[in-house]
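[step 3/7] inverse_fold.run input=structure_tokens len=714
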């Protein structure tokens, strides 16, 4: 329809096109900004917009105030004109507890027989009044003392969520809140920080600063949003807006953005709510969380009498309307006293400081403890016992200390020192490399031993399901076991086990049978089961492959595994190993240091040696491997096996998988439909190739059954 260049149109044709074009563009704008739905590409929008600009340039007499080009008129103002509200914009009175909300609602019921209420999120922005006449946006006025403030029409016009034209044809005054999205707030502040400008303290501040600019261009750049929530005045006598929720429906129909519990899917539709429903929403942690997840800041809820006929009956105080009030969610951050610092020891060897606080109520939860993370954190924030601190509770995170209120420190308090010994077993503590976490490495440390044993017998390693954490606890308490090696001594303690409460014949039988069955372990599984930090599946495999293939441990295969392991552990605690392990691709220095620490500890070595009296270690997988240490690249594939599955297989076996051919690549594995460029490059670098299917077969790849693949099971 807009194919003809504006040059070739006469006024009549242009007029015809103009109205449709403006209304189309306004609708696209509304869909995009208010409904968050793109129904036209940005490119197409730009084409239409430029066409409109050209049209208006040729026929300036056509320009309407509601044309999207008029959002930014590039007119810098010398001052913001004063303006008057015809009805005061009052702020809501506040309540800070759910108890207060209940009492207020009960009072409405008792004193006025009011039963219909409404609740909506309250925006933390800047209140303004918008005036529409004959369906067109006319004026925007900020709130000040409730009666008079500044005309910000030009600036507000740049905001994309503002409809310039609405279907309602009479005079309309609505109340909006100008907000800045949290994501945009962060972006702007980050930029200002970089430019060494003062940062805005909160989104409301930024909204206010952006709106009261003399240059509308600045306002436009701030990407503000406007959310409407109240009809202040309307002039059609036939039209009935007798309930507040109906006003919101009416606003939505007129393309205003009303972000409330209906649009957040808490309510299926807008309707009057009873006292119980209001209290349910006020008290719901899920709803608070939902609000926290929004890109707009909500710390408040607005609770209103829904039936507007009561608004005049209840009227206002000097500052607040009496037909509505706001509920503020309890602060997420609150000050309290740090009474003490406790130390906890975890299975991962870490010793972490925990703050013991004077109990405070944060969000209906009494907080007595908070995380202090580590001793670096304490040092950085200069936290001392006896200090007043700000503690914060956020969702799904344990409460933590935000800052120290140093002004409240009346005299010099002692510093919190990092402990030299484990608070539980009094072994010397240490840091692994440059890690901040403080550690206790003792495998028999009482604070860790239960978790260590549970980890050792868990599904991934020994897989003895009959030894639950509870059973382990009982066995530790009666001193039947002291470390994970002792698990195997239980086979000699049948009678003693039967004497324990709750250990019936059947249970004891199951435990002992499982232990007897599980005394053969693969070397890599064994390494992982020890619970050495950073030794996970892939790392363990890589170490084992390299020990056996490169360091010739292969000769010992199927011989006496005690000797082999002794050789390995001796090797690992020798000086020679360190360089060797560090030279392996995929083994990080911190892994090496962790192994070193573990095996250097005589006590740990003793437990491992004790273990080797009971456990046989085998390494069945390695001896079948056709290839030594390689860096593989794959090109092409095999039907019904994904590239990722093959990559995983390669990595699990301790080989390295690369995406691109480089000088380091040692082998190119070629499947069906290989890439020519990769084949060419391999030739260029003199890299040998190998058939993918043969590679997988020869290395015992666990092929999925083809039929299962076809059934969609793979
Ligand atoms: Zn300890």
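[step 3/7] decode complete -> sequence:
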């Amino acid at each position: 329809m807009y194919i003809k260049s504006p040059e070739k149109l006469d006024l009549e044709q242009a007029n015809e096109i103009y109205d449709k074009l403006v209304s189309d563009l306004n609708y696209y704008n509304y869909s995009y900004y208010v409904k968050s739905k793109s129904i036209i590409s940005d490119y197409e929008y730009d084409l239409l917009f430029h066409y409109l600009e050209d049209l208006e340039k040729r026929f300036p007499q056509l320009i309407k105030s509601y044309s999207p080009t008029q959002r930014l008129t590039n007119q810098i103002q010398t001052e913001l004109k004063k303006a008057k509200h015809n009805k005061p914009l009052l702020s809501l009175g506040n309540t800070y507890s759910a108890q207060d909300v209940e009492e207020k609602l009960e009072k409405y019921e008792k004193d006025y027989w009011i039963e219909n209420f409404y609740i909506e999120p309250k925006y933390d922005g800047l209140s303004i009044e918008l005036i529409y006449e004959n369906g067109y946006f006319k004026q925007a006025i900020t709130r000040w003392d409730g009666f008079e403030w500044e005309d910000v029409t030009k600036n507000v016009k740049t905001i994309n969520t503002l409809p310039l034209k609405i279907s309602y044809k009479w005079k309309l005054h609505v109340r909006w809140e100008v907000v800045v999205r949290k994501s945009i707030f962060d972006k702007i502040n980050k930029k200002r920080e970089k430019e060494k400008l003062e940062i805005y303290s909160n989104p409301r501040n930024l909204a206010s600063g952006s709106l009261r600019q003399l240059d509308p261009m600045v306002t436009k750049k701030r990407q503000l949003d406007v959310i409407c929530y109240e009809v202040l005045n309307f002039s059609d006598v036939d039209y009935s807006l007798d309930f507040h929720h109906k006003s919101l429906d009416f606003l939505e129909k007129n393309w205003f953005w009303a972000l409330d519990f209906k649009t957040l899917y808490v309510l299926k539709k807008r309707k009057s709510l009873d006292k119980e429903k209001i209290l349910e929403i006020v008290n719901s942690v899920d709803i608070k969380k939902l609000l926290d997840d929004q890109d707009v800041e909500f710390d408040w809820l607005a609770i209103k009498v829904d039936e507007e006929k009561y608004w005049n009956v209840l009227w206002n105080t000097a500052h607040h309307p009496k037909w509505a009030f706001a509920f503020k969610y309890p602060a997420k951050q609150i000050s309290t006293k740090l009474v003490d610092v406790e130390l906890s020891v975890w299975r991962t060897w870490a010793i972490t400081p925990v703050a013991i606080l004077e109990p405070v109520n944060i969000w209906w939860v009494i907080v007595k403890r908070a995380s202090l993370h580590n001793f670096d954190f304490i040092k950085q924030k200069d936290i001392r016992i006896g200090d007043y601190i700000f503690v914060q509770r956020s969702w799904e995170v344990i409460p933590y200390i935000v800052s120290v209120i140093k002004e409240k420190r009346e005299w010099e308090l002692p510093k919190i020192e990092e402990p030299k010994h484990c608070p539980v077993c009094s072994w010397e503590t240490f840091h692994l490399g440059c890690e901040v976490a403080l550690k206790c490495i003792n495998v028999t440390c009482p604070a860790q031993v239960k978790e260590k044993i549970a980890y050792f017998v868990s599904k991934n390693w020994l897989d003895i399901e009959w030894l639950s954490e509870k059973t382990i606890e009982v066995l530790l308490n009666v001193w039947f076991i002291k470390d994970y090696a002792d698990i195997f001594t239980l086979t000699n303690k049948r009678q003693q086990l039967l004497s324990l409460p709750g250990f019936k014949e059947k249970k004891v039988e199951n435990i002992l049978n499982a232990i007897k069955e599980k005394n053969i372990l693969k070397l890599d599984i064994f390494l992982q089961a020890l619970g050495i930090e950073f030794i996970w599946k892939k790392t363990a495999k890589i170490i084992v492959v390299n020990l056996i293939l490169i360091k010739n441990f292969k000769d010992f295969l199927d011989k006496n595994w005690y000797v082999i392991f002794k050789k390995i552990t001796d090797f690992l605690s020798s000086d020679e190993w360190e360089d060797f392990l560090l030279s392996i691709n995929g083994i990080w220095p911190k892994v090496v240091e962790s192994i070193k620490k573990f095996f250097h500890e005589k006590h740990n070595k003793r437990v491992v040696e004790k273990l080797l009296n009971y456990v046989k270690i085998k390494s069945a997988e390695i001896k079948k491997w056709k290839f030594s240490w390689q860096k593989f690249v794959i090109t092409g594939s095999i039907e019904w096996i994904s590239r990722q599955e093959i990559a995983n297989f390669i990595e699990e076996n301790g080989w390295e998988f690369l995406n691109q051919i480089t000088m380091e690549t040692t082998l190119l594995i070629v499947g069906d439909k290989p890439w020519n460029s990769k084949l060419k490059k391999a030739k260029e670098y003199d890299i040998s190739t190998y058939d993918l299917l043969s590679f997988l077969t020869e290395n015992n790849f666990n092929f999925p059954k083809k039929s299962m693949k076809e059934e969609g099971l793979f």
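[step 4/7] annotate
Residues 345, 422, 424-425, 427, 440, 442, 445, 447 surround zinc ion (CB under 6 Å).
The chain has a mean pLDDT of 81.
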